[in-house]
Automatic annotation (TrEMBL):
The lineage of its organism: Bacteria, Bacillati, Actinomycetota, Actinomycetes, Streptosporangiales. Pfam families: TetR_C_6, TetR_N. SUPFAM superfamilies: Homeodomain-like, Tetracyclin repressor-like, C-terminal domain. This is TetR/AcrR family transcriptional regulator. The keyword Repressor applies. It comes from Nonomuraea purpurea. The keyword Cell membrane does not apply. It comes from the Bacteria. InterPro entries: BetI_C, Homeodomain-like_sf, HTH-type_TetR-like_transc_reg, HTH_TetR, Tet_transcr_reg_TetR-rel_C_sf.
Length: 201
């Protein structure tokens, strides 16, 4: 009988996410992830085979868990639009500095050049779009958005705004990321921010 695993694959993949934030995808090594997870590099080789195997597992885990921030947001907020803001803030909360965000965005370079990773990244984008669209449809049903809103197109615009804010904030670092994200999404949806209401008052 083999020795039981004392550290789950999920915990290791979370450590991989932190290591990517620290080192970027090109500077990432199994040794760096092992240090972050409190394991030996040999353990990671045994579980994932290689750095590529680890990154593939990391991408699969991201696809399986993309719905979780949206589920948590629904549980905390009665308003679908507030749930949307909370979910997007949750998704971007893993990074605290411009450098960490830049390193995480750097993973896109690998996604675009490796067919397996590109397929997984595209699937992640599709799943995120569907989650955004579901909340926007709920917002229409709740009267928070106009009934004639074209939900799929609006969801695509929100997703583009989300990704755009990440890139701009990584470049400038101006203000809190969550505040920038909320303002961009509200502008995309045509919903006035509290500051805009105050200016008109």
């Amino acid at each position: 009988m083999g020795r039981p695993r004392t550290t789950s694959d999920e915990a290791i993949l979370q450590a991989a996410g932190r290591a990517i934030g620290r080192h970027g995808p090109h500077g990432l090594t199994l040794a760096a992830v092992a240090t972050e997870a409190g394991l030996s590099p040999a353990t990671l080789v045994q579980r994932f085979g290689s750095k590529k195997g680890l990154l593939t597992a990391f991408a699969d885990h991201a696809n399986q868990s993309v719905r979780l921030p949206f589920q948590r947001a629904r549980e905390r907020h009665d308003s679908p639009l507030e749930a949307l803001h909370a979910a997007l803030a949750d998704l971007s909360s893993a990074v605290a500095t411009r450098e960490e965000l830049a390193n995480s965005i750097g993973l896109l370079q690998l996604d675009l050049t490796d067919p397996e990773l590109r397929e997984r990244a595209a699937e992640h984008a599709r799943r995120m779009h569907d989650e955004i669209a579901a909340l926007l449809a709920e917002a229409v049903a709740a009267g928070e958005l106009a009934g004639q809103a074209q939900v799929p197109r609006l969801a695509r615009a929100v997703q583009i705004a989300y990704n755009g804010v990440l890139i701009v904030w990584a470049l400038t670092g101006e203000g809190p990321l969550a505040a920038a994200m909320r303002e961009a999404v509200e502008e995309t949806l045509g919903v006035k921010t509290p500051n805009q209401w105050a200016e008109q008052g």
